[in-house]
Amino acid sequence: MRYRSTSGKAPLTSLRGAVLRGLAPDGGLYMPAEIARHSPQELEDFRGLPFTEVCYRVVRPFAGAELPEDVLWQIVSESINFPVKLVSLSPGLHVLELFHGPTLAFKDFGARFMARLLGYFVRGESKQLTVLVATSGDTGSAVAHGFLGVPGIRVVILYPSKRISEAQEKQFTTLGENITALEVAGSFDDCQRLVKQAFSDEELNKRAFLTSANSINIGRLLPQMFYHVAAYRQLPVASVPLIVSVPSGNFGNLTAGIFAKRIGLPVARFIASTNANDVVPQYLLNGEFRARPGIATISNAMDVGNPNNFPRLLDLCRNRLEYVQKEIWGHGATDEETLAAMKMVHERYNYIADPHTAVGILGWEAYKREHPEPSQGLVLSTAHPAKFAEIVQRAIGAAPPLPDRLAACLKRDKLSLPFSSNYADLRKFLSAN
Ligand SMILES: *Cc1c(COP(=O)(O)O)cnc(C)c1O
Questions:
Q1: Closest by Cα among 70, 72, 52 to 62
Q2: pLDDT of 269-301, one tens digit each?
C-alpha cells in the first residue's frame, strides 16, 4: 500500500515511510492511497471469527506486501490483547467500552500497535530509536505502556514535577525497562520546549535517532478501526440505521470510524461529540473552521482547540462541507451538562460513565432530539471512570471502583529522574545514553 499526503505535494511513500516520518514533508497528513471495501459476505464472516483474526483481516490491506504475514499477525495479537466490551443501556443505546487495556483508555489501541510496528521497521538499524515525549498527564502513560519491552526502542518522557496527579504519574514512572521518566523542575510548557529543542538540534539528531510517536501518526489510526468493527460484530442485528457517537478532541477516533465505514461498515452517521472545545460542531453548522486556544474542561483529554486530524476528515469527505455534514453531525456539551449526564446515566441505567463518555451520551441525546426517527445509538466509551475518580465523585456522590491494574501501580515505587529545565542537560542526557 502506498501513502499520500493530504496536502498532495509530497511523494507517495510506503507504510514504513509514513510511520517513521509521522508528518509528510509538505506538512500534510498521510492517508492510504486507496481504501478497499470488504464485501457484505466478508463482513458477515467477521461475526464468527476470533477478534485477532478480524483485526488482522482489517489491517492487512493497509500493510500490503510490506509486512510478512507472520510479522503482522504478531503485531496485531500482541497489541490487541485485551477485550472490547459492549454494554447495552437500553435496546436502542449501547456503550462500547474501549478502556480495558493497560492504561484504561482507548489510546492503548493506537499506542500499542504503533509501538510494535515501529519496532519492526527499525529492526536492523544500528542505532537505538529514542521516542521522546512531553506529557501533561495521559499521553505519557499510553506511550510508555505501548512501547514497554519493545526491542530496539527506548522511551524518554518529560513531565512537569508536582503538576500531574499521583495516579497519572505512577502509570508511567514505575515501569523501568526501556522507559525513562524525567521529572522536570518546571511546567508542561518547559517540557514541550525541551522536546522541541531536541528535535531541532541538528548536531544531536546526527548522533541520536529520535522520533516523536506523535498522535497524527497513521500507525496510530489504523488499529483504531478495530473497535469500530468490534462494535459491528457485537451489536444485535437491526434494521434501523446505526449512529455512532464519538467523544472527540483531536478527531483521530472519528477519522478511524470513517475509515471503517469506507471498508464497508454500515454506519449511517457519526456524531462529533465535543466539550466546550466545539470547533468542529461549529464548522458543521456554519462551514467555518475557526481554530482557537483550548479551553480547560472536566473532560480534559478533549481540550483541543485546533484538532490535528481535521485535514483527514476533510480529505475523506472530498473537502466538501455538504459531504462532511452528511457523514457527521456535531454537538458541544458544557461541564454542567456533562456532570448532569453522569448523574442521569447512573440513576437511570446504574452505569458509571467517565466525563468523556458522558459527552458522547449527550451528543447522542441531542441527535435523537433532532432526529426522532428509529435508529440505534452506539457511544464510544474512551476512558475508565476510575481515571477521573474525583469528577465521578462530584457527579454521582461516590467514587468508582478502582481496577486492580491501577491499584497495583499506585503501590509501586516511582523511578523517575529529577531533571532541570535546561536544554543543555537534556542534550547531555540524550547524547550519553
Ligand atoms: C484522547 C482522548 C479522547 C479524544 O480522542 P481523539 O481521537 O483525539 O478525538 C477522548 N477521550 C479520552 C479519554 C482520550 O484520552
A1: 72
A2: 999 999 999 999 999 999 999 999 888 899 988
Amino acid at 340: A
* Cα(238) to centroid(ligand 1), Å: 28
- Distances, alpha carbon 307 to alpha carbons 205, 272, 277, 301, 311, in Å: 28, 12, 10, 12, 9
Query: To test ligand 1's pocket by mutation, which of 273, 302, 379 has the most ligand atoms within 8 angstroms of CB?
Result: 302
- For 331-359, the pLDDT digits (tens) are 999 999 999 999 999 999 999 999 999 99
107 is catalytic: yes
Give the Å distances, CA to CA, from 210 to 151, 252, 365: 15, 23, 45
User: Please, which residues have CB within 8 angstroms of residue 97's CB and are 6 or more apart in sequence?
Assistant: 84, 85, 86, 87, 381
Is the shortest distance between the CB of 138 and ligand 1 below 6 Å?
Answer: yes
Edge-to-edge strand list for the sheet holding 417-419: 209-211, 129-134, 153-160, 179-184, 417-419
Domains of the chain, residue spans:
83-104+221-401
- What would be the CATH architecture of the domain defined by 83-104+221-401? 3-Layer(aba) Sandwich (3.40)
- C-alpha cell at position 312: 483527514
> From the CA of 249, how far away is ligand 1's center (Å)?
6
Number of continuous H segments (helices) and E segments (strands) in the chain? 20, 13
Residue of 217, 228, 273, 356 with the most ligand 1 atoms within 8 Å of its CB, for mutation: 356
Torsion angle of C-alpha atoms 38, 74, 140, 247, degrees rounded to 10? 20
- Is there an atom of ligand 1 within 6 Å of 136 CB? no
